[in-house]
Amino acid sequence: MDTETAMNQVDVIITGLGPTGATLAGLLGQRGLSVAVFDRLSDLFPLPRAAGLDHEVMRIAQELRIADRVASHVAPYRASEYRGTQGQLIKRLDSAPPPFRLGWAPNFVFEQPAFERALRARLAELPSVRVECSAEVVAVGQDEAGAWADVRLAGETATTRCHGRYLIGCDGGSSPVRKQLGIALDDLGFDEPWLVVDAIVNDDKLAELPQTQVQYCEPERPCTYVVGVGNHRRWEIMLNPGESLSAEFPEEELWPLLQRWLKPGEGRLWRAAAYRFHGLVAKEWRQRRILLAGDSVHMTPPFMAQGMVQGMRDALNLAWKLERVIKQGAPDALLNTYQQERRPHVTATTLAAMALGRVICERDPARAAERDARLLAEQDGVVKTTIRQNLIPGLGDGLIASATPGAGTILPQPFVHASGFAGRLDDLTGPTLRVVAVEPLAPADKAALLEALMPLGGVLVQLGAPEAGDGPLVNAVEDEGLMAAWLKGLGQRIAVARPDHYVYGTADSSTDAVALLEQFRDRLQRP
Question: What is the pTM for the complete model shown?
Fold first, then answer.
């Protein structure tokens, strides 16, 4: 193969270098797959867009080895208070308290440009990942052997064709790849115009502003106030009929909208942008060798801060399956489970966000007053805190042993200590298939599980075993009993978890766990 051909022949082509595309490229690159990423912009977008992320994203950042790099650019997400027509508290959301089930605080605010910069810096460290910016993808296509993209690289007039085994369109809500494939979007029934204003507030003004997130459910002008990292504060303001959706908002039009909280001289405006908040999900997520991820395949209104998170879940789901197909000989049909799993999950999460949005967006004064009374009556007159994570579903279909308790949920990540190690479980085991037992196993049970694991790869984790493990056997002791309490609550002793941390199934005995592993192996071969 000549040099030109080698440069343009990769395992996976990714169009779009936003958070989803960059995350997928990093996860694939760390798995040793060759990746070419093309983005039409010369650099990342320098202003904030998404405001929130969650523990699943931080777990992905941990896997990508950038969690420490982004630590100064994230902060805990504060409780959300919903205020009714008279300013009274009508609903409250907050994060689950410690110990944190996934090893990270459940919700964060963050600075997106800094987070993306860390993602891109990680890609530069991966020799099998090639990134091309100022690169216009003119066309994509496929045949039985693979997919291709015709790309006009920076400074060139002619296009270059890049070939890959698969192509993933991560090219945003207006996705040219999706449009070229003729894939339609299902409208879930949410379409509202909002203005998002970001400001950096002066130190002496911060104490006068709300100290937590507030949803002002006021029919004359619904709005959201978000406490960001450091002095960053965000206002999301619903636009009235006839108000401009222009990308340009002069400061003299913005300050009157903020005067309830902030006046000129008390901070500086950072960014203002108008959006239509949508609930959209693509009908198809895959056409043979071309798949879609992130905003190209779904759009979620921001009322649960799940927009970017949904795309990063897509990336993690795809990464381990592409590795299995490309490097380990799993059948191409395994990739069909991507839509089977992610589309229902995205739809349910989007509908939950829309339901919260409808609480906020009520414009009729009489119906708003009825809403306030109803919500309070449902809580017996005393507002109770809803845990945000309880609004996020698990997997209900796909590559899971759905008859077992806990299947389709996410494997906890306790802090553990082992011989020469103290930290989070994933850092000890790696992002691989795991069988986790919450107590040391009998020698025969341990041998049977290791034998069943051998053709699948992965590791057997014995918690409560202080002695050093070896190879596919990992011994560790939990610091807080998180995993043990979780499995006890399910009435089980052993969990089998996929490389994306979703629980394939649980078992009460090693015999049942071996059967789960054999079933998992068969389903990988015949999805």
Answer: 0.96
Please measure the distance between the N-terminal and C-terminal CA atoms of the chain and give it in whole angstroms. Answer: 34
Contact criterion met (CB below 8 Å) for 225 and 213: yes
Cα–Cα–Cα angle for 313, 318, 324, rounded to 5 degrees: 140
Closest CA to 151 of 133, 129, 125: 133
Nearest CA among 14, 19, 16, 63 for reference residue 34: 14
Residue 263 sits at φ, ψ, to 5 deg, of: -120, 160
DSSP 3-state of 100: coil
Q: Distance (Å, rounded) from C-alpha 464 to C-alpha 197?
A: 50
Q: What is the pLDDT of residues 312-355, one digit of tens each?
A: 999 999 999 999 999 999 999 999 999 999 999 999 999 999 99
Question: What is the DSSP code (8-state) at residue 411?
Answer: P
Distance CA 3, CA 479 (A): 52
Give the Å distances, CA to CA, from 83 to 71, 96, 401, 439. Answer: 31, 21, 42, 47
- Give the amino acid at 400: I
Alpha carbons 149 and 143: distance in angstroms, whole number: 12
CA distances, 158 to each of 92, 134, 304 (Å): 56, 14, 44
* Phi, psi torsion values for 209, nearest 5 degrees: -90, 160
Identical topology for domains 3-74+111-185+280-337 and 415-525: no
Contacts of 272 (CB under 8 A, 6+ apart): 195, 196, 197, 198, 249, 254
* Cβ count within 10 A of residue 251: 10
> CB 355: neighbour CB atoms within 10 A?
13
Rounded to 5 degrees, what are φ and ψ at 453?
A: -75, -30
Q: Which pair of structure tokens corresponds to residue 242?
A: 């006839």
Q: Is 223 helix (H, G, I), strand (E, B) or coil?
A: strand
Q: How far apart are CA 167 and CA 14, in angstroms?
A: 6
Question: For the chain, what are the domain ranges?
Answer: 3-74+111-185+280-337, 415-525
CATH superfamily of 415-525: Glutaredoxin (3.40.30.10)
Local structure of 359: helix, strand or coil = helix
441 SS3 class: coil
Distance CA 487, CA 406 (A): 8
For position 403, what pLDDT does the model report?
97
Three-state DSSP string of 318-333: HHHHHHHHHHHCCCHH
> What would the CATH number be for the domain defined by 3-74+111-185+280-337?
3.50.50.60
Asked whether 23 and 60 are in contact (CB, 8 A), the reply is yes
| Residue 285: other Cβ atoms inside 10 A | 25
Question: From CA 32, how far away is CA 425, in angstroms rounded?
Answer: 22
Q: In the prediction, which pLDDT does 467 show?
A: 84
The segments of the chain whose pLDDT lies below 70 read 1-7
Q: Which of 342, 271, 276 is nearest to 309 (CA)?
A: 342
